Amino acid sequence: MTAPRSSIRVGTGAGFSDDRIDPAAALAARGKLDYLVFECLAERTIARETLTRLKDPERGYTPYLVERFQAVLPACTQNGIRIVTNMGAANPLGAARAVRREAKALGIADLPVAVVTGDDVADLVRQNPQLPLMESGEPVESLLPRMASANAYLGADVIRDGLATGAPVVMTGRVADPSLFLGTMLHGLGWAYDDYPKLAVGTLAGHLMECAGQVTGGCFIDPGRKDAEDAVNIGFPYADIGQDGSLLLGKLEDSGGRLDVMTCTEQVLYEMHDPTSYITPDCILDITGVEFAQEGKHRVRAKGAKARPRTPTYKVVVGYHDGYIGEGEVAYAGPNAVARAQLAEKIVRERLQLRGFTYPEIRVDYIGMSSLHGMGEGRPEPYEVRLRIAARSPDRKAALAVGFEVRTLHVNGPSGGGGGSNAIREVLAVKSILMPRELVKTAVTVVGGK
Amino acid sequence: MSVKVYDLGHARAGDKGNTSNVSVTAYDERAWNILREQLTSERVMHAYAEIAKGPVTRYELPKLRALNFVIENALGGGVTVSLAQDMHGKSLSFKMLDIDLHGEG
């Protein structure tokens, strides 16, 4: 492999499973990147994909995998950009085969893919039922009969090892979001996995970039107050990371959005609890000393991150079946709209009761009034309002009845109710445990490249 | 004279399990002093009373002129099980920005 470099450029290709596709293609084509990282796994995605894999053993990876690779593979191959991603979800090996099929269709006969496995710890959880849930302190044992998946958040070391194989693509299941990025630095800059000042820089870089457009103007714009250029074409970020631990963020000049101290400050605190202790599999990051400085248009330097040694455990997210949520909506407008919606609510509640259904939790929203921040005080009545009723139940029939009774309001409810809709979904809930590191066995396997 | 947090700073909300965190970053030093003094965890708990059970913990980041509020029991049991429309609580930043504080005389 190539010797460590004095600086590398890492870009973000996606910040969640349903993210936009085009910004990654632009970065691959014109970003002068060394690595392109796609983060595509939310907390429960793996649980859902585990169920998909049960139905079809070749699937269980992220839904847009093919589209994302189609968009970037030719440019990445041409420009020597290596791809790191957790798109493998519940089936990293199946994902690797899918990527290789796609590569072949694009004229790349044999694309080696390094596959990281070992994050699936469902068997280990079954063997250690005494491990306490972080949420309640109760043993995980009670969830085992309903468990759908259990995955450990692996660290940057597995990404480093994947890249060390020389494969152009590293495919993983669950790896902590910042670790996907830090791994490229361990490999590309030759940083040691116990060099904590460096791990702090790489983890900060990963944390800032893991949500892609959220640091470049996404989730930020408030018209007239906080504006950005060309919000349609918000570009995704990249960072230049120096061997010495320097960190400079940027985005393509011809992309939209905005990258400045304000966007970075919002993003560094995103999903942050105690800012002295952001726990990742690699270290405990302290951002209280972090400072941002504008070094040019859409160029921000970050410094001041510190890190303490990593904990002896991996966080494991356990996905489990938790019944059903049924819901229905119907809308009213004009004079007395709110009163008609309120009557509709009363009718639905009583009809459900008459049918003998009870629910551990029912939620009623008046969309346009109270669905996001509650009823508040002294708010004026809106011209139109959309009633939404949602309830959970372990019983599918009871959950279905909620939407059913809302739907029937068109014909059997107050005057002028329209736009009814109903839905039901199976709930995959998640809880967390901490698993001693030594129990978790990870592996890197290269598929192809003979 | 009353002033909204909206006029003093900008905010973003994030989610982890059943906990929401909302950061508030001051636009300038004057705003920072007002926020730091008046936007207490008690004030925030009061504002979110209809949404969250709490407790609320406040962290200060003077170098960023930012406050970070960790609001527990705020997301209907967590993103995966919540009955709410906004299961991530993305809109909760604007609840923070709607809080009224006392401006300078």
Report on the structure:
The complex is a heterodimer of chains A (450) and B (105). Chain A has 2 domains: 7-119 and 154-311, no CATH class; 318-432, Alpha-Beta Plaits (2-Layer Sandwich). Chain A is built from 12 helices and 18 strands. Chain A has helices at 22-30, 45-55, 65-79, 92-105, 122-127, 156-164, 177-189, 196-209, 261-268, 337-354, 396-407, 409-412; strands spanning 7-14, 35-38, 82-85, 113-117, 147-152, 169-171, 237-242, 247-251, 278-279, 283-286, 291-296, 299-303, 306-309, 313-333, 361-367, 384-393, 418-436, 443-447. Chain A has a 10-stranded mixed β-sheet with strand order 11-12-8-7-1-2-3-6-4-18, sandwiched between helices. In chain A, helix 7 (177-189) crosses helix 8 (196-209). Chain B has one domain. Chain B has 3 helices and 6 strands. Chain B has helices at 29-38, 41-47, 92-97; strands spanning 2-4, 9-16, 19-26, 56-61, 66-71, 100-102. In chain B, the strands form 2 sheets. Chain B has a 4-stranded antiparallel β-sheet. In chain B, a hairpin with a 2-residue loop joins strand 2 and strand 3. Classes of the chains: A alpha+beta (450), B alpha+beta (105).
Comma- or semicolon-separated keywords:
heterodimer, A: 450 residues, alpha+beta, 5-stranded antiparallel β-sheet, 12 helices, 18 strands, 30% helix, 28% strand, B: 105 residues, two-stranded antiparallel sheet, 3 helices, elongated
Task: Indicate the percent of residues in helices of chain A.
Answer: 25-40%
Order of helices and strands of chain B: EEEHHEEHE
Cα separation of the termini of chain A: 17 Å
- Give the H and E element order of chain A: EHEHHEHEHEHEHHEEHEEEEEEHEEHHEE
The largest contact between protein chains, plus residue counts on each side, is: A-B, 51 and 37 residues
Low-pLDDT windows of residues of chain B? none
The fraction of residues assigned to DSSP E strands of chain B is 25-35%
Count all strands of chain B and give the number: 6
Gyration radius of chain A (Cα, Å) is 24 Å
Poorly predicted residue ranges of chain A = none
As a percent range, the share of helical residues of chain B equals 10-25%
β-strand amount of chain A: 25-35%
Strand order of the largest sheet of chain B: 2-3-5-4
Please report the total strand number of chain A as a whole number: 18
Shape of chain B: elongated
Counted by DSSP, the helix tally of chain A is 12
